[in-house]
């Protein structure tokens, strides 16, 4: 995606669908959501339009939610598969007779289905292009998911994973830095405070960043 640097000093608006003037191919997700079982935090964006069309098999009877935090970066082609895609696996046949006309089977109770709970994405998570997130996955804050990955198991905070199935590549930072970031939770600060922190949050000198964040935490 082309990087566009904005020179105006207007305040960021989490309720604006198109946050880049003149660009209609990147959207803040929260103001577009209609399904009450999809919960998305402020400033999380999608590198396309119509995010809800990328959430499949999300049926009310499964009672699952897709919960995504703030400031996530979700690339074009990312898809979330929800629990309604799962078939009964504890019997001889996995065929879903109960949803098709003319077959003599009542819908099994949810306790008989491989329902894996809510799908949860933390804050400041970057999900690469054409990635698929499977039902019930929990992705921690600050994680990075490589492009074209299939994520079927939980991803710890500040961890890079990639592949099919996605596997851990490495931790992004040392344990001390991760603890600082987990305590800071910068995404919950107000806009003015985040703006002041941007030079620190985007600094590639990680030792310098660590020391400055320690100072910020003791204020």
Topology:
Elements: E1 27-28, E2 38-40, E3 45-46, E4 55-56, E5 66-68, E6 73-74, E7 79-81, E8 119-121, E9 126-127, E10 132-133, E11 138-139, E12 144-145, E13 150-151, E14 159-162, E15 167-171, H1 175-184, H2 191-201, H3 206-217
Parallel strand pairs: 2-5, 3-6, 4-7, 5-8, 6-9, 7-10, 8-11, 9-12, 10-13, 12-14
Antiparallel strand pairs: 1-3, 14-15
What's this entry about, in short?
The chain is built from three helices and 15 strands. The chain is α/β, with parallel strands linked by helices and 219 residues long.
Using the coordinates shown, work out and report the CATH topology of the largest domain: UDP N-Acetylglucosamine Acyltransferase, domain 1
Principal-axis shape: globular
The largest beta-sheet arranges its strands as: 1-3-6-9-12-14-15
Q: What is the total tally of β strands?
A: 15
What structural category characterises the helix and strand content? alpha/beta
CATH class of the largest domain: Mainly Beta
Q: Multimeric state of these chains? A: single chain
Series of secondary-structure elements, N-terminal to C-terminal: EEEEEEEEEEEEEEEHHH
Rg from C-alpha positions? 20 Å
| Portion in helices | 10-25%
CATH superfamily of the largest domain: Hexapeptide repeat proteins
Which regions have little confidence, pLDDT < 50, spanning 5+ residues? 1-6
Q: What's the main sheet like?
A: 7 strands, mixed
Strand content: 15-25%
């Amino acid at each position: 995606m082309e990087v566009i640097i904005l020179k105006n000093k207007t305040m960021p608006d989490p309720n604006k669908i198109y946050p880049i003037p003149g660009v209609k191919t990147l959207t803040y997700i929260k103001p577009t959501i209609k399904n009450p079982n999809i919960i998305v935090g402020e400033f999380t964006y999608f590198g396309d339009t119509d995010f809800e069309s990328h959430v499949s098999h999300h049926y009310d009877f499964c009672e699952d939610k897709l919960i995504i935090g703030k400031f996530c970066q979700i690339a074009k082609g990312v898809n979330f598969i929800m629990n309604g895609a799962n078939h009964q696996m504890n019997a001889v046949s996995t065929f879903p007779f109960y949803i098709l006309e003319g077959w003599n089977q009542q819908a099994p109770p949810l306790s008989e289905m491989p329902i894996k709970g809510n799908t949860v994405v933390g804050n400041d998570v970057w999900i690469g292009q054409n990635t698929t997130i499977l039902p019930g996955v929990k992705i921690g804050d600050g994680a990075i998911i490589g492009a074209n990955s299939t994520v079927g198991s939980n991803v710890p905070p500040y961890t890079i994973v990639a592949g099919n199935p996605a596997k851990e590549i490495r931790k992004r930072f040392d344990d001390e830095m991760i603890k600082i970031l987990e305590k800071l939770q910068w995404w919950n600060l107000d806009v003015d405070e985040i703006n002041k922190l941007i030079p620190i949050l985007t600094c590639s000198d990680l030792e310098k960043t660590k020391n400055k964040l320690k100072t910020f935490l003791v204020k």
